[in-house]
Design a protein that fits this description.
There is one protein chain. With 196 residues, this protein is of the alpha+beta class. 24% of the residues lie in helices and 31% in strands. Strands 5-6-2-1-9 form a five-stranded antiparallel β-sheet, with no helix packed on it. A four-stranded antiparallel β-sheet has the order 4-3-7-8, with no helix packed on it. The protein is elongated, with a radius of gyration of 26 Å.
Length: 196
């Protein structure tokens, strides 16, 4: 007579499978963001607090993002979305102060037009960039919306996706097969106590 594996081990296997599949689905597609300065308008040469909010299209907060800001003089050339030249200001990774809200302090340059680049480097070998043209003056900027576009998956991550698409389902099938075969010797009649 074979015994079924304990229910605890079956539950643990199901939990591990759910966690593995959940982490595969965590890849972002499109992120909606907003950047704001405090004080607004920011004074040239003074320190300003920059607040960045990130949400998915479902309006769920984007947590644990690895985001940076870069400020360059002038807008990008006409018809080009890529700013030219090294940044005047580049931040370290922004601190997440609450779910989906990131902040950094910047000392802002003189009034004028600048390109603010928001760089999302959350996923290895992928970087989403949004460029905003901001004009610092005595007028308030308000909250400036932006969109971080979907990132292209490079060839280096093809192996990772093959593991998720082929390896994880194959491992799940083997695990389920083993659990079924180990518990296959019992019938429904054995589960009921005998009347005697």
């Amino acid at each position: 007579m074979r015994l079924r594996p304990p229910r605890r081990s079956r539950r643990l296997a199901a939990l591990l499978l759910a966690v593995a599949l959940g982490s595969a689905a965590a890849h972002p597609m499109l992120v909606i963001g907003e950047v704001a300065f405090e004080p607004d308008p920011p004074a040239p040469g003074a320190e300003a607090l920059v607040t960045l909010t990130l949400q998915e299209t479902s309006l769920a907060e984007v947590e644990d993002a690895v985001v940076f800001l870069e400020l360059r003089p002038g807008p990008p050339p006409a018809g080009d979305s890529t700013p030219v030249g090294p940044p005047l200001i580049a931040t370290d990774r922004l601190e997440e102060v609450s779910p989906g809200v990131y902040q950094a302090s910047l000392t802002l340059p003189a009034d004028g037009a600048y390109t603010l680049s928001v760089r999302d480097r959350t996923y290895r070998q992928e970087e989403a960039v949004a460029n905003l043209v901001l004009t610092f003056s005595d007028q308030p900027l308000g909250a400036q919306p932006f969109v971080l576009p979907p990132t292209r998956t490079g060839p280096a991550s093809l192996g990772t996706w093959l593991v998720w698409l082929i390896g994880v389902p194959l491992a799940a099938g083997v695990l389920v097969t083993i659990l079924v075969l180990r518990g296959g010797g019992r019938s429904d009649e054995e589960d009921e106590p005998e009347a005697g």
